[in-house]
Write a sequence for this structure.
């Protein structure tokens, strides 16, 4: 359910929203928590926590196996998560949504079930320099086995993808193209529609890593025009260990399973096994049933706010935080893309990112430091690590002020 047009114009009542997130009111080292590590994982509203709690208290059973009441309830709840995700990404069919443990499993599923069987020596997979390792390493693993290569499209100094270059690199050897919808380090929003259009012209399937997009923007896989879209639940208010791969039916029908086991077969004989149709073909074994019980509530929460309001609020906060960080002496900000989600990576002269993050934690501030699972991007900028403040709609300008004050105190400590 999307926000009504008039509701979309109303500003967010952030204090009310914050009251829905119990963890935000805790203290860390005796200081009020400032949680700016949302690109790493997001906090959960009461509705999600209660849905998981309710599952264990009232409905716990395995899915798709038992005919008893609890088994039917657990199965209905698990399948309701598929329906919610299918609606959330505007999938043409719920059967095109494979439930996974997150983006990493979703991308590996494409690597092993789609790419591995079709790649041969001389073929290539195209990705970009700004990707998370989850959108690089699985391709390297299947490339090693098949003799294919992995190519990476470049970015510019602002952290924008050089789209003309990406398109130029869509040569006939490329059998699969990949791109992050939003960079986890730079916040850059990539022009997925344009890339998908160019891929379609050349008959190259496109995989989009939507991990960092889904918490911030409406996803419409049909409008984007891609072939595969991966999301991870824990960054979009849902429990950890939940996620999904959406893929076009024509690909799923042709893909052999990646994991074998229970719940993914039609008939097993030692002479040969007949696999179930998608999506169950790709969901062997007992899934994260309790986690998926929280997914519809997470999606309902995001949609209840409405992505227009969410965007207006987050973009304002991003601008405010960027100005504040920019005013720090000796600061270097990484990522000034034309269109960004609320992620700010930076370094302060004379201060190691990990030292800063450790000392900020003592001030109650949670930010991530390190390479953010993006070694090639760190190499591009010539740094081993950055500090990353990643914001969500439940963060406030007052927290940004508190963050800047905490940085001032830490710098004094560091001399
Ligand atoms: C852009 C991007 N892709 C993939 C992942 C991996 O997600 P997960 O660990 O939830 O599978 C992350 C997580 O940080 C990410 O930011």
């Amino acid at each position: 359910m999307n926000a009504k047009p008039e509701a979309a114009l109303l500003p967010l009542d952030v204090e009310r929203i914050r009251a829905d997130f119990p963890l935000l009111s805790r203290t860390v080292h005796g200081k009020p928590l400032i949680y700016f590590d949302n690109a790493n994982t997001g906090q959960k509203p009461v509705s999600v926590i209660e849905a998981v709690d309710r599952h264990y208290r009232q409905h716990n059973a395995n899915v798709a196996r038992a005919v008893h009441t609890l088994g039917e309830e657990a199965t209905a709840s698990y399948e309701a998560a598929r329906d919610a995700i299918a609606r959330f990404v505007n999938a043409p069919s719920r059967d095109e949504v494979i439930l996974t443990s997150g983006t990493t499993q979703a991308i590996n599923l494409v690597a092993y079930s789609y790419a591995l069987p079709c790649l041969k020596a001389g073929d290539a997979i195209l990705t970009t320099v700004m990707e998370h390792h989850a959108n690089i390493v699985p391709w390297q693993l299947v490339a090693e086995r098949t003799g294919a290569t992995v190519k990476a499209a470049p970015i510019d100094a602002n952290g924008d993808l050089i789209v003309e270059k990406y398109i130029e690199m869509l040569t006939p050897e490329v059998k699969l193209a990949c791109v992050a919808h939003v960079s986890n380090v730079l916040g850059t929003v990539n022009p997925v529609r344009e890339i998908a259009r160019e891929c379609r012209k050349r008959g190259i399937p496109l995989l989009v890593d939507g991990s960092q997009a889904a918490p911030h923007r409406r996803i419409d896989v049909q409008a984007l025009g891609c072939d595969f879209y991966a999301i991870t639940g824990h960054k979009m208010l849902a429990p950890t260990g939940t996620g999904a791969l959406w893929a076009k039916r024509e690909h799923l029908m042709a893909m052999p399973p990646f994991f074998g086991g229970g719940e993914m077969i039609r008939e097993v004989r030692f002479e040969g096994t007949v696999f179930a149709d998608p999506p169950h073909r790709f969901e062997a074994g007992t899934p994260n049933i309790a986690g998926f019980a929280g997914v519809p509530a997470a999606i309902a929460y995001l949609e209840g706010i409405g992505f227009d309001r969410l965007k207006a609020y987050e973009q304002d906060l991003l601008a405010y935080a960027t100005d504040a960080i920019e005013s720090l002496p000796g600061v270097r900000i990484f990522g000034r893309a034309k269109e960004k989600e609320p992620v700010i990576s930076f370094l302060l002269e004379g201060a190691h990112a990990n030292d800063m993050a450790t000392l900020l934690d003592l001030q109650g501030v949670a930010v991530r430091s390190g390479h953010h699972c993006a070694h090639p991007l760190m190499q591009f900028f010539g740094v081993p690590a950055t500090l990353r403040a990643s914001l969500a709609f439940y963060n406030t300008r007052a927290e940004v002020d508190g963050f800047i004050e905490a940085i001032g105190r830490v710098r004094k400590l560091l001399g």
